[in-house]
Design goal:
single chain; 81 residues; mainly alpha
């Protein structure tokens, strides 16, 4: 049950960070920029889990994190923000 609460919290922070990213004006607005940095998102939670908490690491997990990050970068580069 606790894992589901953590998952819900990770999803909520990802959504909040993504919404507020639009309002940071290129990270020139300190308060909103700090909020985005604090809500680093699902990929960071997965990496932290593998590095610090001892979750299992597999090629599929690592590839999935790379795809998430690559997708976000790709969307931003395409102007979809």
């Amino acid at each position: 049950m606790l894992a589901w609460i953590y998952l819900a919290a990770a999803i909520a922070t990802e959504v909040i960070g993504t919404v507020f990213l639009r309002f940071t004006d290129g990270f020139t607005r300190p308060l909103l920029s700090a909020l985005v940095v604090v809500t680093v998102g699902t990929a960071a939670v997965a990496v932290i889990g593998m590095a610090a908490i001892g979750e299992s690491v597999s090629a599929l997990k690592l590839a999935s994190v790379v795809l998430v990050i690559g997708g976000v970068v790709g969307l931003n580069l395409s102007g979809a923000h």
